[in-house]
Fold this sequence. Notes:
Elements: H1 13-21, H2 24-28, H3 30-141, H4 144-160, H5 167-194, H6 198-210, H7 214-239, H8 245-270, H9 276-290, H10 295-305, H11 309-335, H12 342-360, H13 362-375, H14 384-413, H15 418-444, H16 454-484, H17 497-500, H18 503-517, H19 526-555, H20 586-606, H21 612-619, H22 636-659, H23 667-686, H24 693-703, H25 709-714, H26 723-733
Helix pairs in contact: 3-4, 4-5, 4-6, 5-6, 5-7, 7-8, 7-9, 8-9, 8-11, 9-11, 9-12, 10-11, 10-12, 11-12, 13-15, 14-15, 14-16, 15-16, 15-19, 16-19, 16-21, 19-20, 19-22, 20-22, 20-23, 23-24, 24-26
Amino acid sequence: xxxxAFSDEKFDVKQWVGQVFEAxxxxxxxxxxxxxxxxxxxxxxxxxxxxxDETSHQVLQSLPRLVRDVEAVRAEAARxxxxxxxxxxxxxxxxxxxxxxxxxxxxxxxxxxxxERTCQALKEADNWTTLSADVxxxxxxxxxxQMADKVAALQQxxxxxxxxxxxEERRQTLEEHRNRLxxxxxxxxxxxxxxxxxxxxxxxxxxxxxxxRLPQLEKYYVxxxxxxxxxxxSAQLEARxxxxxxxxxxxxSETLVDTWHTQTRWxxxxxxxxxxxxxxxxxxxxxxxxxxxxxxxxxxxxxxxHSDPLQLLEECKRVTDRLVTTLLQAADATAGSxxxxxxxxxxxxxxxxxxVTQLQRYGRYQEQLLVPTIKALVPSxxxxxxxxxxxxxxxxxxxxxxxSALDRCLSFTYxxxxxxxxxxxxxxFETELSNVNATAKQLESQPSAGSDWTVFHASLRLLQxxxxxxxxxxxxxxxxxxxxxxxxxxxxxxxSAARLLPAGDQSRYQQLVDRVAEGxxxxxxxxxxxxxxxxxxxxxxxxxxxxxAPIRSQLKAVETVDWEGRGGAGASLSADLPDFSYTPQEYxxxxxxxxxxxxxxxxxxxxxHDPTLGRALQSGVMPYSSSVSGGRSESESSVVxxxxxxxxxxxxxxxxxxxxxxxxxSAGMTRQLVADIDYLGNVLDDLGLRLAESLHALSTLLRCPxxxxxxxxxxxxxxxxxxxxxxxxxxxxxxxxES
Length: 739
């Protein structure tokens, strides 16, 4: 039986009993097994009691010995205390007896030290005189190492003679010796650095260290490496004359990267006191800023000759991006963090400086690409139908060009040149709208007949193109606003607007971003919207005149009708004939047929669920639209109703203006004119419209008998009949004016 559980601090009686009674033997013979367990526990208790008795007996026997040991330890501690007191008293006595002697020894040591320093000063003073006499001979001998040793010895002597009265004169003399030594050593140092001669360079570095001119080494090194890289740049341009600036930059970038790696190892070996990352960043920044011919001038020449300057600049900038990224990663690996290298910022600025001037012309470059392409979208020598079709298809092509230009701006300049791009967009819209205006002029000069609907359809397609352009412009503007409302994407950590743009363009971009961030109701393409609105109004007028031309040409026939009834068909008309005897004349039936045919010809423009026509009509003001009841929307039925209403209102007003110019009219022809007006009213009623107020008033005045003319006028009520029409009809019918 396992009794180890009884020694556990967390012993649980119930749990232990439960485990015992779960044993297999308990199931076979519970009473026997329980008796066995009880007997074993009793035996175990007896053993424990025996063990306790034995242990207690042993402890009682050992207590006297322990008491004796404790007493002995106490006695030893007391003796130790007495001895320590005696030792302390001895120490105090010694200190009192030897204090004067120690002070005397200290004074003697101080005197000795001062005498040694004085002796050393006298030696150095004598040494300065000796070295000053010898240094001229050594300088004339040309031995750099001996010269450096003498100068170092002079410096050591001068350090000791800092208290003498002629110290400043001695210091100037030493500085002159250093200058002469540097002048002698510098050509050898330049030659050693240029040849990458490690052994000679190490000797010369030691010379500069001995004469305390180590800081000058970096200047010599930077100057030598800059001259070497300038030589390699010039040689590269001479060897690659047939190639372009892109190939030059690519090859020179490889040269700069190779120089970085080779010179890093060289600097670590020869000039360990310099930071390789910082020194090489200074070298490359100084080199890039002083190249002749400069990268900026090469880019300027190349962009003038290239058909797509922006593409060339993008490719060159990608080369520069790779170069700068590689160099910064190398600086990071060498110095631990490129951010800790102040010269890294100068390197980045020097690398991207050539692009600042070019990006200042970003808008102009974009215009040079967009304007010729947009002009070519609409052929100038085409007929009307081809030209209108070209204008319609040019809208989607224009927007593809503008969205591509926006994508290019975001990838190339990270959106920093958006203000200049918006200026280029305005030029693009001006070019596109000049195509529209030219087409509108061609449309206006095109003769129109009632049986030829070509001009009518062309007018509607041109309006559709304007509406489509308005819709697409709004979407483009929304995209630009979305871009400006978010931080520029994909910008490398080392680049910012300040590294790519001049101060003026930085300010324009930041102002634009701030206005968008403030939530102003900003219209980025406001000049483009103004151009669109003005062009839309002009095109609507031209389109209306083209659509209205058949009506106007038919109404001109009113002037040729024999209204006095002195001959022809009008002579047989009598005022006593019934109303059904009067049939509408041909001119008005032609007008009616034209109006009734309008829905049929408008239907193809409405069944495509294209809201562009409605968009154009919603933004402009078509002639005679002020008298059209109901608002305008982009729905198909509303657009059809609006166009037909404007044409019908124009027909009524022109018809009324033509009627009031009739000088005299017979009674029979008066009823004929009323029949013509009634016919037009019936046509308009079928179209869901009504006669204009002026034409309705004329019909009323022409219908009334001559004897009741005055009463009808007086009974007109509100609104009263227009006095102009009243007077015109009175004169037309030959009625005597009533006072």
